[in-house]
Design brief:
The protein has one domain (29-254): F-spondin domain (Immunoglobulin-like). The protein has five helices and 14 strands. The protein has helices at residues 10-19, 89-96, 100-107, 263-273, 275-291; strands at 31-39, 47-50, 53-56, 58-59, 62-67, 112-118, 133-140, 145-153, 158-161, 166-167, 178-179, 185-188, 220-221, 239-245. The strands form three sheets. Strands 4, 5, 6, 8, 9, 10, 12 and 13 form an eight-stranded antiparallel beta sheet that branches. A hairpin with a 2-residue loop joins strand 2 and strand 3. It starts with 9 loop residues before the first helix and ends with a helix. The structure holds calcium ion (3 copies). One calcium ion binds at residues 95, 156, 192, 201, 206, 211-212.
Length: 292
């Protein structure tokens, strides 16, 4: 029996098994984590200076992955944005704030064990405005690391992400519960020439996605981009990322949003409700529908 389902009655187990594909049942050493990404620029009063005046900073819908090994599947500092997986997923996020292609690349990557997209709690395609947050759940085994990418808006091709990933377990193999913002950096994807934050090819000003002067460079920390100096806020003034384990059988508050189709979430949710309670609830719902 998996840890996640420990202590749950047999009826619930049967229901979970019926409702979820067997591959979604967690392995013995897996832990579910809730990850929360918050745009803290409202509480820190941070905006970006542009020739058109101070503008609020948004975080685009993002993509996330749990991976093992040394290669961060989202991006490699000093390498082209198409690496290490191939494809234009990172460029799609960094230039336009679209996470789907990178999420698809994650799904096919051998080092990735869990992946998906996240967006503002108001909707699956909503950017995180100042003061807003997104949350999602991942499952990982000891050694597993978390990566993610979300666009810094407004910009041509700037994004936030953890260059070396985020270790989800400590040296003793115990799940972390921590503010991991220190692992996040501000990067330039090297795919579009920079205009001072709000130029005609920046998001949200650009007339259509993938619009702007091509930059044939590599992923770099924004302070290392030569010839196009732009002053970005400190990371912690704009974004905050926390990771915490989800208790066995528990449903993380606020998790399981529309952008998160993690089947393991479904297993835990069913387990927490209890199979009998869930079926009873469905019965009540049917009866209510029948009396309308
Ligand atoms: Ca650039
Ligand atoms: Ca652009
Ligand atoms: Ca481009």
């Amino acid at each position: 029996m998996s840890k996640k389902l420990a202590g749950v009655g047999a009826a619930a187990l049967v229901s979970a098994a019926v409702l979820a594909p067997s591959s979604a049942l967690a392995a013995e050493d897996e832990t579910m984590f809730r990850v929360e990404v918050t745009n803290v620029s409202k509480e820190t009063g941070t905006k970006v200076d542009t020739p058109q005046g101070a503008k609020p900073i948004l975080l685009s819908p993002g993509a996330f992955a749990v991976y093992s090994g040394e290669d961060n599947p989202a991006f490699t500092v000093g390498a082209e944005a198409t690496l290490p997986l191939g494809g234009e997923g990172l460029e799609n996020i960094a230039e336009d704030g679209f996470p789907m292609q990178l999420a698809q690349q994650f799904e096919g990557a051998p080092m990735v064990s869990d992946s998906g997209t996240f967006a503002d709690e108001q909707g699956p395609k909503k950017a995180l405005e100042p003061g807003m947050s997104a949350s999602f759940t991942v499952t990982a085994s000891p050694g597993g690391k978390l990566t993610l990418a979300t666009m810094f808006v407004p910009s041509n091709d700037a994004f936030y992400g953890p260059a070396d990933g985020i270790e989800l377990f400590d040296a003793g193999g115990e799940p972390i519960s921590a503010d991991v913002t220190d692992a996040i950096g501000t990067f330039d994807a090297g795919t579009e020439e920079n205009q001072p934050f709000f130029g005609p090819a920046t998001k949200p000003v650009q007339p259509h996605p993938d619009f702007g002067p091509v930059e044939e460079s590599v992923v770099l920390p924004v302070e290392d981009v030569e010839g196009q100096p732009q002053v970005y806020p400190e990371v912690g003034q704009v974004i905050n990322v926390t990771v915490m384990p989800v208790p066995a059988g528990g449903v993380p508050a606020g998790a399981g949003g529309a952008a998160d189709d993690d089947a393991a979430t479904t297993v835990a949710g069913v387990a927490a409700l209890g199979g009998a309670a869930l079926l009873a609830g469905m019965g009540i719902a049917r009866r209510r529908a029948g009396t309308r």
